[in-house]
Amino acid sequence: MRSGKRFALSVLAAVALTFVVAAPSGAAKPPHPDDTADRPHSDNMVLVGTSLRPGAVFGPPPAGPGTVPWDTRNTDLAFWRKTVIQGRYDGFRVIDVSNRKKPRELAMFPCVSPQGDVGVYKNLVFRSVDGPQLTDQCSSVVQNGSPTGAACAPAPSPCTGFEGIQIFDISNVNSIRHVASVPLDCGSHTHTVVPDEDNGRVLIYNSVSGNTRQANPGKYGNRCPGPPFGREDIVEVPLDDPASASVIGSFDLGMFGDHHIEVCHDMGVILGSVDRAACAGHPAVAVFDISDKDSPEFLYAVAEEDEGVDRWHSAAFSWDGSRLVTGWEPGGGTQPRCQATGTPLGGGQVQTDAMKTLWIYDAGTGAELGRHVLPRSQSQYENCTMHNYNIAPLFKRNVLVHGSYQSGTAAVDFTNPLNAYEFAWMDPLPLDPPSPTSPGGRTNFRGGDWSSYWYNGFIYESDARRGLYIWKVKAREVRGPELKLDYLNPQTNHTSLDVRGGDDDSEDDDDDRDSD
Prior knowledge:
mainly beta; 5-stranded antiparallel sheet
């Protein structure tokens, strides 16, 4: 999601109303006995467990115990064996999921700053900071009243502080240590973890979503240089000395026609025998050979300009490296862009299929193979785009799991890309009614599923306002054999899958089978 770090945000007051909303057209949403009434789902989705910690997107909340800063949201997820790291705008959570029926929060580490996306490798957690802070250290409170948690005052005052990647050691969850902060031009909106253990290190490909020129570089030396940004920075984290992490270089994002490709929002990576990366940028998705991880080589770019796509958001490879799935985020993730096709959106805009579409490409050539359009139309009160997703490492089928704000979570079979279809879903009712005291009677469109990912036979859902949910899908599409993972950063396929029945690397997979 675009954080809006370069823009002022208005603060809307929360208004409690009793409100009944009809289910979106095109899909019945009956209640289910194992779920609350406001989170209906298909019969083949079974809720296994939850670990809830609320976000506060209306704020400022009333003072008192248990309140959280304004605009705090649960964000992205990362997985290490039986532990889930959940990012937040006010820090990150460490959750034990060894018993998925009773996940247990081991730690909530406070660190207020947007956007809080996370990655993990062994005992190290990496966190994106997407707005200038007064220092590179963590704070447990919002500073200077900035609604995004940034410590610098809004424009025209110059922001002169730290933004970039923070690194934490979680070896002892009772005493988590902040071991390094790496300042980066334009900060870190998202990042991609690229393990390189043969060389004793982890690389981080850093992505930004904004490139507005900053007034001065500040005491940390980082300065957003303005468009065209056109590069991805590389941070090296030595595993034997993570405190010495530093920027070791960058690579150019290439061209699409006469246009520089700018500002990767997310970068998807597949390692193993494939070694490819895909930058979801503007105006195209750029694909790279990363055989040399320090110096990726541009291969080609794809775009859908005739569909009105202006800025791509996410890119994911199938685990055999043959398919590339891409999507975008019209409305910045805070607007209702999954309504019935043809619905007027205001400002002369009309809802299109493309606003709620995932594209499927041949990863080798860039040829379009098919697409998937969200089949469940959402209401005008629900922020929605096809947001964050990954692909299950199944040997016989291609299955994608996505979390897409208030359209919820769904699983899509795209084994035949010309006939991609949704076979499981959870679609919550709208969070907020229209408020007569909010501008135009509209709601604050900030909520729903930031991310949903497949990991070792289960779907893990990060709900921005609620916390973590774990689901089991009982469907023929996911009954086949799959590669067991010992960890997962969802933007990275850290190995590649041999469709003949094995993975291309000799990873020490954690054989942790549940009876659920």
